[in-house]
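Table S2 (continued). Query chain:
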Amino acid sequence: MREAIGGTWIFSIVIVFIVLFSSFLAISVNYSSAFRVKNDIVGIIERNEGHNSYVEDAIEEYYGSVGYGAAAGCKPPATGMLPVLSTTGQKYRYCIQCTQKNISGASSGMDQCHYKVTVFFKFDLPIIGNIFVFPVSGETKPIYRACDCCKVD
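Corresponding output:
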């Protein structure tokens, strides 16, 4: 009888380690997907030197091809907050926030813009399902423009 009880404990320990390992793999895959999507959106904005309607179309096309769709709420809109691709209610697949400052005094007319891109990472475990959603953020390199860069064209 003692051997049967010992075997049950070992079997339980093995099951726990399998669940932990598969959870770790699921988290790693989802986080790397969110990080890749964030980097690609930042790359689209940098290639087009800012955020405009063409960039929104390019990001929409990219989202259609990649198949990643975690959604959550954005922080309350600040100056230049551009939440796009609304799904249902106040949830967004990504958020873009623009910060702008005038460089070299007001006479130059050049503005330095940074775009902060936030995508969302699903904490999705096998069998259990979606538990939490965390933001993954990144910024573009400085983009120099002679007009209001936080305004969507």
